[in-house]
Amino acid sequence: MATIAAAAVACAWPIVSHADSSVDIEAGRALFMQKGCYECHGIFGQGSVATGPALAPDPIPLPAMQIYVRNPGGQMPIFSEKILSNDEISLIHAYLASLPPSQPADSIALLNNGTPSAGASGSSSSVSRASNPTAHAKEAKNPNAP
Prior knowledge:
mainly alpha; Cytochrome Bc1 Complex, Chain D, domain 2; 2 domains; 47% helix; disordered N terminus; disordered C terminus; Cyt_c-like_dom; iron; heme; Cyt_c-like_dom_sf
């Protein structure tokens, strides 16, 4: 019960990450790999139904993540402060928070018979470039040509 109360308080705190620079983000990515987080959560924190939940692109607040890592539920192993310090969790959190959201599936031409949906954002010229390399070469020489 104390863990639930602590998690509730942690979630009420503002989200503060001590890691803001690209160096910290890269260090967080390296820790995510070294500590084995990617094995269950995927290299981009995307998660899997079979192995572990998604952690990115919007990770839980840092204090809640620190509490959960110390006393997880389910099949996640416990990471004591000797194994993973709060500073290291902060770096991992910065890495996860830096990851952009995935594109919607309907915007990926390969998943839609070579054509993104009409409502999908993105350039249709990339589809024509893939299907017509000659047109792409002409466009590269003269980008203003019809």
